[in-house]
Amino acid sequence: MTNGEIEAGGGGRGGDGQIPQPAAALGYAGALPVVILAVLVWAGSDAVAAFALPTLIQLTTIILAFMGGVRWGIAMAGPAGPRFGPLIVSILPALIAWPVMVIENRVVQMALLVMAFAGLLVSDLRATRRGEAPAWYPGLRVPLTVLVVGSLGACLARVLTL
Q: What string of DSSP letters covers 69-129?
């Protein structure tokens, strides 16, 4: 490691392809409560799980909307300037997050979140290939998405087996 960065593959727009340490630290710090809540859903008492599951859904819904904001920033700073397509993609996470917050079916909520995070990752990978996002971005997004989708998927499986 050099200059406070974590190694990742590929060169980046204005960088050497390494994940900036602040982005990695804050990204993983944000994923930690998601993983902890998923463990509590599986390993906690019924009372703990009854708290942890809706909290997990609320937290990941907020993270999804935040990721839309990240995409807005990427779209605004893109090499071609702000364009409708990337800006529309950037508001989709918030448009998905809103109904997730009001739907009362936990299975539907988690399924929507899993699909939204997976779809957003695919979109982020495409944006990186087009040079719209830094080359280091997939090195952070892929493992964080695996943690979030894995946590949601595990909780979805738990709910389906009850």
A: HHHHHHHHHSTT-S-HHHHHHHHHHHHHHHHHHH---HHHHHHHHHHHHHHHHHHHHHHHH
